[in-house]
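DATA SHEET
Item: assembly model
Revision: 1
Owner: S.N.
Input lines:
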Amino acid sequence: MADLFPPLVTAQIDDKPKVDEKVDYSNLPCPVPYEELHREAYMSLKTDNFEGLRFDFTKGLNQKFALCHSVMMGPTEVPSQSPDTTIKIPTAHYEFGANYVDPKLMLVGRVMTDGRVSARVRADLTEKLMVKANAMLTNEPHMSHGMFHFDYMGSDYRAQLQFGNSALIGASYIQSVTPRLSLGGEVFWAGVPRKSGVGYAARYETDKMVASGQVASTGLAVMNYVQKVSDKVSLATDFSYNYFSRETVASVGYDYILRQSRVRGKIDSNGVASALLEERLSMGLNFLISAELDHKKKDYKFGFGLTVG
Amino acid sequence: MDSLKGKGKAGSKGASKLDLLKEWTNWSLKKAKVATHYGFIPLVIVIGMNSDPKPHLFQLLSPV
């Protein structure tokens, strides 16, 4: 039979990539941290749209140490009784910050004019163990909160333990199952509203796309998909569903990373269209324009800002 | 472990040990919160000013 059908050259070429793709299960890559599962989707879709003026000045004193001053003037929303109306109060504040960034230790502190201090610490205790802490401290009693995280990075898994104030304890674990797929789960227990919850997550990524999903017993199910169309363009879509309150939100967005600028736009199923443009005017000088149109609530927010350094 | 044993043996002794522990942790957390609130940013600045290459005090205070 072999004489009648000469061997096809294409069959041999097909064999080679198959052999290369044979999965080496003992040598899987380390997965992304559990809280960064939806990293690509959030980078494209969750933009920090602001309203008013924003001016950030970062002064580097050193390779590792920098001080930053930022001024924000604009209306801030105050929660109102009815969901239809939004109450905005014009405020202006100044924030001073100090950053120290070292390969092994990172300290970021910010203090505002109303006395609120936000602190973030990240330290690598050993090559595999990392401690992170973040805290938001205010002068008002019982309004401060802080959290500690201990991360352990194994060869193809990551485990994390979290402790927060008001007796919040959580743990999460994520494991690479194949070179492209990683699965994880988390458990948390909150002391004050005596609640505990379990969540599961999965992430599948290739060179061109990332798809991830997360389900939690608090009722939240999130799925998102990011397609990297080219080096400069990526498109993302996100779907979140709360199965207790039956609320769904779906959004579609794009992210163009160009040489001198970055544009991100998004449209939502709640009737919100938003966009953020960051343009690099010259070395160290960035200009930002943000717009968010909420057609359902008739709330239109526009902001502009400048970032120096 | 001691506090649990204490609770089993003599209720009042065990309860006061646990209470003492709770009170001590509350007190230390409060002090830690105040210390972090006032001291975190100065700590970052001190660590930064002592890193290589050492920046000048003038650079810290000037707006340029």
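QC remark: The radius of gyration of chain B is 22 Å.
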